[in-house]
Amino acid sequence: xxxxxxxxxxxxxxxxxxxxxxxxxxxxxxxxxxxxxxxxxxxxxxxxxxxxxxxxxxxxxxxxxxxxxxxxxxxxxxxxxxxxxxxxxxxxxxxxxxxxxxxxxxxxxxxxxxxxxxxxxxxxxxxxxxxxxxxxxxxxxxxxxxxxxxxxxxxxxxxxxxxxxxxxxxxxxxxxxxxxxxxxxxxxxxxxxxxxxxxxxxxxxxxxxxxxxxxxxxxxxxxxxxxxxxxxxxxxxxxxxxxxxxxxxxxxxxxxxxxxxxxxxxxxxxxxxxxxxxxxxxxxxxxxxxxxxxxxxxxxxxxxxxxxxxxxxxxxxxxxxxxxxxxxxxxxxxxxxxxxxxxxxxxxxxxxxxxxxxxxxxxxxxxxxxx
Length: 371
Ligand SMILES: Nc1ncnc2c1ncn2[C@@H]1O[C@H](COP(=O)(O)OP(=O)(O)OP(=O)(O)O)[C@@H](O)[C@H]1O
Ligand SMILES: CC(=O)N[C@H]1[C@@H]2OC[C@@H](O2)[C@@H](O)[C@@H]1O[C@H](C)C(=O)O
Prior knowledge:
Strand content: 15-25%
Bound molecules: adenosine-5'-triphosphate, the ligand CC(=O)N[C@H]1[C@@H]2OC[C@@H](O2)[C@@H](O)[C@@H]1O[C@H](C)C(=O)O
CATH class of the largest domain: Alpha Beta
Number of domains: 2
Oligomer: single chain
Radius of gyration: 20 Å
Helix content: 25-40%
Number of strands: 12
């Protein structure tokens, strides 16, 4: 048995998730979540990161300063997590650090994906071995570099008889399809489009606070069918996987370009929730085998009761389960994935699924930084 820490800060830019995970050397045993926490980014750091994601030009000074501040925050999250369990740094086999995605451009002429991270500094500050830079090897091998979580979903959730769909509702939504053990169904995984990032951004613009708590504001509005149709015309939704996306594609400007100008703000919010529910349901529907499919929902969107209701309305007959039934909280699945991917790296096992990302083959992902 060994202990790993996974660090993830996703497209919502809400905080750094840190998960303490116990992993057995035998690949057959499922990793176990021991504890986790989220350290909020704070107003200044969030603003600096958001600016980097939106800027067309970036100064090295801004990049360097933000990278250091971000890394200090990661180290603080690790410190708090280890402190809770009285664990010294030597007790941790490795930290798996995702970093903060600043730009993801798998469709550029020269494709790239950039995660802000400073694993050398993180190793220095924590005294732990760090594994980082998980995405770029997959892209170097011709893949999308995202989503990476499906291989972790496969390890955690594959069932003997049932088909399982795992849906992450973060800033972006991604879906994994796992056939039952022994079935010939390949693993499928891809980003379906926006989950919460448009909902959050519209809320910030028109209301106080970053989150439409439980989707209550959206629930009080009326879906604007014409706007919904224009939003759903986005060609990304019809692309066949492998595919991945991010803030570069789905941002407030993308919504504004499709407004007529006379919509009530609350109706736009209702419509954005419906956009997430419909685009996810459309993506999932093709994989639902009647009466034999579970949908396991994770990510912050699982706490948005209105979004969950709209999703269920578009997927009648599908049984919706929380990760909790499997010993994971919906909030910590992604951080857990990067702890587990660090374990894979240390043991030189591949971290990607070529059938998901489109890479030319399995690859060992990430670089190792000594403590
Ligand atoms: N109580 C709640 N009510 C409504 N929405 C919520 C609630 N709690 C969380 N959320 C939503 O979940 C989001 C955070 O989700 P999560 O932390 O899974 O995203 P992420 O990991 O940053 O994104 P990604 O998976 O795309 O990288 C918040 O920004 C918010 O939109
Ligand atoms: C480039 C990037 O950071 N992508 C994230 C993002 O957040 C959700 C979705 O888009 C997913 O593709 C991915 O994260 C998870 C952890 C993944 O790779 O599976």
